[in-house]
Design goal:
Layout (H helix, E strand, L loop, with lengths): L3 E2 L2 H13 L3 E6 L5 E6 L2 E6 L2 E8 L4 H8 L2 E6 L5 H9 L7 H4 L4 E2 L8 E2 L4 E12 L7 H7 L7 E12 L3
Antiparallel strand pairs: 1-10, 2-3, 2-6, 4-5, 5-10, 6-9, 7-8, 9-10
Length: 171
């Protein structure tokens, strides 16, 4: 599938629609070349430090966390509506136990600008270079958010990635 270069602004509407529904896949790569993916439903896009930025959230307990820590880049892979089963599978199974790519017939392809590969079947891909990360401060969270999303205290790390490439096929 040939993908054209997109501005992140034109891809944002479709990305937001899918994040509110089935989600997207976040890929990370380790130093040994192993790749893992996980379903994300939370991300934000905008401009920080005069650069286009995507912020993603990963809990330290997730297998993907070690991949995010190992390499300073990641891809956000927005799958079409028809791939809801793959998104559900990747959101409920750990890469520690199963090869999600093989189980879901997902094809890894090299990144255009970064080391982390993307997923060929994605309708939109964001390649991001990590500029910063920080841990959520439990004391600063609204108590209702803390109670609803962090009852066990497994707070997310936030990764701020400069969008260095965006491509896909819209419509």
């Amino acid at each position: 599938m040939s993908k054209q270069t997109l501005s992140y602004q034109e891809a944002f509407v479709e990305t937001t629609r899918l994040l509110e529904g089935p989600g997207a896949l976040l890929n990370g790569v380790r130093d040994d070349g192993a790749v893992n993916t996980m379903t994300i439903g939370w991300a934000t896009f905008g401009v920080i430090w005069g650069r286009p930025i995507a912020v993603v959230f990963v809990r330290p307990s997730r297998y993907t966390y070690e991949f995010m820590e190992a390499t300073p880049d990641f891809t956000i892979n927005v799958l079409p509506d028809t791939m809801g089963k793959a998104l559900a599978f990747c959101g409920t199974r750990s890469g520690r136990d199963v090869d999600k790519f093989a189980e879901c017939d997902l094809t890894l392809v090299p990144g255009r600008e970064i080391r982390t590969p993307s997923i060929e079947e994605a309708s939109i891909v964001y390649e991001c270079r990590t500029l910063h990360h920080n841990d959520l401060d439990p004391g600063s969270l609204d108590p209702s958010v803390r109670e609803s999303y962090y009852p066990s205290g497994d707070f997310h790390r936030c990764y701020y990635g400069e969008i260095v490439a965006c491509y896909g096929s819209l419509g």
